[in-house]
Every structure is written in structure tokens, then in C-alpha cells.
Amino acid sequence: MDGIYLHRNWGGKFENVVILVAIAVNEDGYREVLGAAEGMKEDKSSWVSFFQWLRGRGLDGVKLIVGDKCLGMLEAVGEVFPEAKYQRCTVHFYRNVFSVTPRSKVKLVAKMLKAVHAQESKKAAREKAKAVVEELRSMKLKEAAKEVEDGIEETLTYCDFPSEHWTRIRTNNVIERLNREIRRRTRVVGSFPDGNSALMLVCARLRHVAGTQWGNKKYMNMKHLEAALEDASIAG
């Protein structure tokens, strides 16, 4: 899930318009675009409306939702898809930590954070994260330490799923690549006369990309998830 910000000319004034986009990996392991809709901003009401629209179109059985730290989206997920788990994109999490880290220390901190997500279990990752927090404090990077301490748990949800899928589901890079393609095309337009015209162009690009190798190449082997769910059912 993500929101793409574009510009529109509204009554002679330039305003932002956000296009909410959802993609998924289906039960066969292929990526597909679930839908896109205009939202005034990435607030709870916009996300709730978007999620309800997707659910009304038949979206069901959602196991995991991956996105950045958008409070509106988080609240909407809990309301519309209470059965789904939330994974905070690790790349966006790193950027949040880097924003309160001196430039001279960013490479070192990046190495420390990557070590957390390189662990082989959630327990080991939590222990490594605690060590990282202590090390950041010893380096006098109190703000960075707080960012890690407060946000690390949301970035470890992927550990609840098959390890074969971890690198695919701990970031929303898959949708970021789509966003770059959309921005490449919309940059030529500049500003749109209204939100609907922006939505139409975004949808046209999404349809184009979905018809390429992006949508035709298997992205994940879902047998691993099926086996994990079956084991969980038996254990329960």
C-alpha cells in the first residue's frame, strides 16, 4: 500500500492530490494491481474508504499489509482488515532513523540496522536491536536510539512468515518501483486539471506495467505459506 502525491490546478491554485495504490501477491504467487483511487490526503478516512472499496470488490484473505509509517493507514488496517498483520517497510524505517543521525554516522548506523534484519529469528532480531539501541546511546545518538527502540517491533512482522519470503515482504520496494514509473510519466504532465485526470493516467500506467513481465513472472512460491498455515492450523 502506498500513496502517490501529484499536483493539480484547482481554481487557479496548485494543490496536492494523492492517489492511493494497492498491489498484492495472489494465491498463485503473482503480483497484481488491486486498485487505485483518489484521496484528499493519506488520512484515516481516505484509507478506510479505499480499503472498504477494495473489500467490496471481493478482496479477502489478507494476511499481511506492508507500508510505511502512515498513522492513517495503520488505523484503517485495524478497522477494515483486523485479521491482517502489519509490516513497516524496513527501508522507510532506516530513512526515519537516518533523519536524526549525523551524516558522518549514517553508514555505520545503516550497517547496524541491517544486522538486526539479518538475524535468523524474531527473538534474535529483538536481542540484536536491544544491543544496537545501547550502542547508539553510547555514541551519543539518543534520537536515533529512540527511533530504533520505538519502531523496531513493527519492522519484524515478516519473521512470522516463511523465511523464504522474508526479503520479499519486509519492504514495499515492489510498489516503489511502480511509483517511480508513474512519476516518470506524470512529470511530463506537470499539474493536472483535477484529481480524476490524475487518477486516469495513473491507472493507465498501472495497467501497462501489470501486462509486462512485472505481472507475468512468478514473484513468490506460495507453497511455503500454505505449508506454514497448515502447520499452524494443526498446532491450533
Short description:
The chain has 236 residues and is of the alpha/beta class. Helix content is 53%, strand content 17%. The chain has helices at 44-56, 71-80, 90-98, 106-116, 122-138, 142-151, 166-169, 173-189, 195-210, 213-216, 223-235, and strands spanning 2-10, 13-25, 31-39, 64-67, 85-88, 191-192.
Q: How is this fold's topology laid out?
A:
Blueprint: E1 2-10, E2 13-25, E3 31-39, H1 44-56, E4 64-67, H2 71-80, E5 85-88, H3 90-98, H4 106-116, H5 122-138, H6 142-151, H7 166-169, H8 173-189, E6 191-192, H9 195-210, H10 213-216, H11 223-235
Parallel strand pairs: 1-6, 4-5
Antiparallel strand pairs: 1-2, 2-3
Helix pairs in contact: 1-2, 3-6, 4-5, 5-6, 8-9
Instruction: Please tell me how large the radius of gyration is.
Output: 19 Å
Written as H for each helix and E for each strand, in order along the chain, the element string is: EEEHEHEHHHHHHEHHH
Largest sheet: 4 strands, mixed
The number of helical segments is 11
- Given as residue ranges, the uncertain stretches (5+ residues, pLDDT < 50) are none
CATH top level assignment of the largest domain: Alpha Beta
Distance between the termini: 30 Å
- What percent strand? 15-25%
Please state the second-level CATH architecture of the largest domain.
2-Layer Sandwich
| Mean pLDDT across residues | 89
Question: Helical proportion?
Answer: 40-55%
Tally of distinct domains: 2
Number of strand segments: 6
The CATH superfamily of the largest domain is Ribonuclease H-like superfamily/Ribonuclease H
Gross morphology is globular
User: What structural category do the secondary elements indicate?
Assistant: alpha/beta
Strands ordered across the widest β-sheet: 3-2-1-6
CATH topology value of the largest domain: Nucleotidyltransferase, domain 5
